[in-house]
Design goal:
alpha/beta, Rossmann fold, 6-stranded mixed β-sheet, 5-stranded parallel β-sheet, about 40% helix
Length: about 525
């Protein structure tokens, strides 16, 4: 439309009398179009202008930003939190495919349990002979078997990651778990069709929970029922994605429970991710009546993507800035420093939270004594923690309750202290899983804790040689150890040493928290600072 051009005359606009005059107000102003929203301005930039034709918007396609473990891994590499590892990336791509399948997967509703079917007299007779040397509950639990439905046809395959210590198994599983689709991050429940729940749990803790469920089921309905299937149904009601860390089978009771439990979870559409030090074919190797566990191994091999994560890199052994948390030998100077750190840790969390002697924790209805503790910090002697007959459940409860633990008097462990060594390994596993800040006062250095120097050097097995290469240990340290009487103990020893080493790093101290629900964590450096610059030896 032809309109006359605006004359370039200077127009002075005077403000109303009640407003102060600003220099900017006196500047020449031309008529401005009304302001558009940012979104509208962006839309205007997307138009196609053609002479003589109507202005038509350009069609654009916006994709949602990438999500899942692959994007999370890329972000951590880009920000320098981790180093790029092509071998790990191959696993991340598998995890990403699982993530995408879970996004599309709609878990089926879990129907009522069918009536149990009584086994034949011949089956009962064979079971009674098979389990004659075991607790009654194992064969009585299956006297009335509940039929299992077929697994959902669109059930995504699980993932079984195995490899040596320090290869990144737990890191990758945590990456997957932290980036699950949203519908698995919300709690599940019976009849819920929009959120399905997920759980990441250490295998020790998971089996404890299963045993608790079994005890409750048997108390409510009697022992002569298929309690394992009932427990599996309860688990599937709560969560459809299960992540197990440190999957292992060491005794006949767990082996028999796991066989039936894995079948039931699979039938109810639960997707599992597991990490283990063992390949599936090596699980429960040389165990009593292992042939009864073979079907569980075959189920893992057929229903899981099995991948070995071994590489030449042990991420726990990579150079890290050490934090002052492991003290040896037990000199007076180190003991004095250790005591000052304990006092500083107690005062730093809550100055009004006084140290209590012989506090008691209730674990499965029995007391566990804590020699010295506040609400968040505890101190034990090695004898108190590992000399007494504590179980994995005790250590899980201790590390759950106390975010910072001081352990003093760790000796060199050998043939005459084998039980203490096993308990110490259980404690280290629990502390590692709970991200506990651990301060240790020890007589030997880390790598020599499990060495018995009184015993002459023995034969170096291939497993010992592999562990020596992984951890940089000498033939004297490994060959003289009386701990190495089985392959499981080799793995447990290697894992414990690797984890203690990682827990001694500054990165671990900064990553750990006293308790997440009690505000910010206390790092080891802050403990030292609050300890009035305790001298390091």
């Amino acid at each position: 439309m032809g309109s006359a051009p605006v004359a370039a005359a200077r127009v002075v606009l005077l403000p109303p009398p009640h407003r102060p005059v600003h220099t900017a107000t006196l500047a020449p102003k031309l008529r401005q179009p009304p302001k558009k929203s940012r979104q509208l301005q962006q839309d205007r930039s997307d138009v196609i202008r053609q002479p003589g034709k109507r202005v038509t918007p350009k069609r654009t396609f916006h994709s949602t930003p990438p999500s899942g473990p692959a994007a999370a891994y890329d972000h951590q590499v880009a920000t320098g939190l981790i180093s790029n590892d092509d071998h790990q990336r191959s696993i991340v791509s598998i995890l990403q495919r699982m993530h995408d399948q879970l996004e599309r997967y709609q878990p089926p509703p879990i129907g009522p349990l069918p009536p149990p079917v009584k086994p034949s007299a011949w089956t009962r007779l064979m079971r009674s002979r098979l389990f004659a040397d075991m607790a009654d509950e194992l064969h009585q639990a299956n006297t009335a078997v509940i039929p299992l439905p077929p697994p959902p046809p669109n059930l995504p395959k699980g993932l079984y990651l195995y490899g040596s210590v320090g290869c990144g198994k737990s890191f990758l599983m945590d990456l997957f778990y932290a980036n699950l689709p949203q519908k698995y991050k919300q709690p599940g429940g019976p009849g819920n069709t929009t959120s399905f729940g997920s759980k990441r749990v250490h295998f020790h803790q998971f089996m404890m929970d299963v045993h608790k469920k079994g005890h409750k089921i048997k108390m409510e309905g009697g022992v002569a029922q298929d309690w394992i299937v009932i427990a599996a149904r309860e688990i599937a009601d709560e969560t459809r994605v299960l992540c197990f860390d440190e999957f292992q089978v060491t005794d006949i009771a767990d082996a028999m429970i796991l066989r039936r439990l894995m079948e039931a979870l699979h039938a109810h559409g639960v997707v599992c991710v597991m990490t283990s030090n063992r390949a599936p074919d090596d699980l429960y190797k040389n165990g009593i009546q292992r042939e009864q566990f073979i079907p569980c191994i075959e189920l893992i091999k057929s229903s899981f993507t099995v991948h070995c994560l071994d590489s030449d890199i042990d991420y726990r052994k990579r150079p890290r800035e050490l934090s002052r948390v492991y003290f040896h030998p037990m000199t007076r100077a180190h003991e004095a420093e250790f005591d000052k750190l304990f006092e500083a840790a107690c005062a730093s969390v809550d100055p009004g939270d006084t140290v209590v002697r012989d506090r008691e924790l209730a674990v499965w209805g029995r007391p566990v004594r804590i020699p010295l503790s506040t609400s968040h910090v505890a101190q034990f002697t090695f004898h108190d923690l590992c000399g007494a007959p504590h179980s994995a459940a005790d250590y899980l409860e201790i590390t759950k309750t106390f975010g910072t633990i001081f352990l003093r008097g760790v000796p060199q462990l050998g043939l005459d202290t084998k039980d203490q060594a096993r308990r110490f390994i259980l404690f280290i596993d629990a502390a590692y899983e709970a991200r506990t800040k651990l301060f240790v006062l020890s007589d030997p250095p880390i790598a020599s804790v499990f060495s018995d120097e009184r015993r002459p050097t023995g034969e170096i097995t291939p497993h010992m040689r592999a562990m020596m290469d992984d951890l940089g240990l000498s033939a004297e340290t490994v060959g003289s150890s009386s701990i190495f009487t089985g392959d499981e103990e080799v793995f447990a020893f290697a894992r414990a040493v690797s984890r203690i080493t990682e827990m001694s790093s500054k990165q671990w101290a900064q990553m750990s928290s006293v308790k997440e629900d009690h505000g910010e964590g206390l790092t080891a450096d802050q403990v030292h600072e609050d300890g009035h610059k305790v001298a390091t030896a």
